[in-house]
Every structure is written in structure tokens, then in C-alpha cells.
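Subject: sequence -> C-alpha cells, single chain

Hey, anyone have a minute? Need the predicted structure for the following. Not urgent.
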Amino acid sequence: MENKTGKYFKYAIGEIVLVVIGILIALSINNWNEKQKSDTKIKTLFNEVLKDLEQDIMAIDGIMFSIKQKDSIAQLILDGEYKIDESSGFEHGELNSFFDMTDYFGQSNSGYSSLMDAINYVPEKYTSTLKNLKPLYSFIVKETYDNMKSIISLADEIRENLTFSQPWYHDVLLNKPNKEAFAFIENPMYKNMVALYKDRVQIYRTRLIFLKFTSIISYLEIQDAVFPEQPKPGFIPTHDIKISNETLDTYAGCYGSKTNGIIIERKANFLMMRLSNSVFILLVTDENGDFVGDVENSSPLKLIFVKDDVNNVISLKMDVNGEIVMEIKKLEDCN
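Reply:
Had a minute. Here:
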């Protein structure tokens, strides 16, 4: 009897163990499935962020093209070389809409907002991508919006000034030819307005460039971390000569002086040069392995890093149109 009871208990315990193992396996499979679903959802959210970043980069390129056209007209006016066809009037709204902020930038942020709503479920391996992403959707874009508001305010001030100081301004609003209005283009007062507008737009342009560069860097960081198998899209700058992140790190640092110099930082697989708190240039390698960057409204800038006998970077030469304009030493640290 005791032998049968012992066998029964062993059998029962074995059954319990099998049931427990089955439950644990089922839970493990369920957890794995849930993790896979969560990872797929997070990847979908990151993909939405990439789409938003691409849209912003393309939008900035369009705005920059428009700004460049208007800036060319402004420079002709300031140089006294701009001519108006009196039969067609003010082709570019020089006395009405010329100063308006029509090149609005509106950041696409729906993907980022959705990602932030799910931030607690973002795997740790992806959290490094948020380092540049968070400021991009906060103070960086806020500075751009503040500049836009400044230009809008300036346009309102100029229109108010013309309304109360120039009797012919009503004719301009009605698109009627007016010789006094045509002559006003050469007036120093008007040129002062244009110069002020041009300065405000220059700040806006600078903010947009930084916004674009930061968007590009964020795009690359997300793609490398979340979608490494995907090819780089055509709107992303590329190096003519492949260069590793480890090599790029050797160029990073402060050059010149701590109070009046430049900072070279590695961002993703690129170098970014900071000339001041608001001027940033993204650098790529040319066919010779030198770093080049486009500076708005000026000649392309080439950077040549000088190394010592043991291959340490000791200084930086700046080349404009084949001429070395300066050489600055690399500091031991930026503190």
C-alpha cells in the first residue's frame, strides 16, 4: 500500500512539474511575442520620425532657395543697381510684400510626439538616438520660430511707417503706378529698411541651416541604430572617401583660443564645425580626403588638418579658393 502511495505522489509531482514547465514555456513565448510586438511598434514610431525629418529637410531646402532669391534682390537695392520697370510696377512687391515672412517653416513633429508618448517602452539600445532629437524638437526649433516672429514684426513696422509717412503708399497697395513710389527705392530710408530686413533674414537663414544639420544628424543616428540595413537616402550628404568614426574623433576638439576659436565635434559619421553659438557647418570629405563645407553666400571652405610625426592633429588650416587664409592650433582640451 505504501509503495503504491509513493508511486502516486511521484507521479503527481511529475505531473505538477510538467505543468509548471509548460506554463513557464508558455509565459516565455508570450513574453517574447509581446517584446516582438513592442519592438515592432517602437520601430514604426521611429520610422515616422524619419519621415518627419525628411520632410523638414526638404522644406528647409525649399525655403533656403526662396530666401536666396529675395536676398539677391535686397543686395541689388543696397548697391543701387536694382531697376524697376515703371510699366509693370513693383514686380517683387518691394514696397508692400517684399518684407513679409512668406517663407514659413513648420516643423513636422507628430512622429516625435508619438515616440515620446511611448518613451517608457523604448529599448535602451535606442535611447542614444534621443540625445540630439530632444533639443531638435525644443529649443532649436523655438529659436527658429522666434526669428520668424521677428521678421513678421519688422514687416508690420515697415508697413505702418510707410502708411503714415508716405502719401503715395495707398497707390502701391492698389498696384497703381506712382513715380514718387518708384523713386523711393533709391531713398536712404528705404535702403535702411532693406538692410535691417536682410540682417533679420540672415539670422533666420543661420537658424534654418543649423536646424537642417541637426535633422540630418538625428536621421543618421536613428537609421544606424534602428534600421542599419537600410541604404542612406539621397538627401543625406556623403563622404567622397569613407572615413571611420574613430578617425573622425581624432579631429574633434577646440582650435584657436578658448574665448575666440572654433569647435569641431563628431556627429554621427560627420564632423560639425561650430564658429559661434549660432553658426554651424557640416563637413564632408572631398576626393582628396580633405573636409569641405558650404558657407552660405560665400566660397566653399576647405579644412586641412595638420598632423605631427606620430599622427596627432596639431593644427587646422582653412582654405578658401585654393588659398590658406589662416592656421589655428588645436588646444589640449576645451575647458
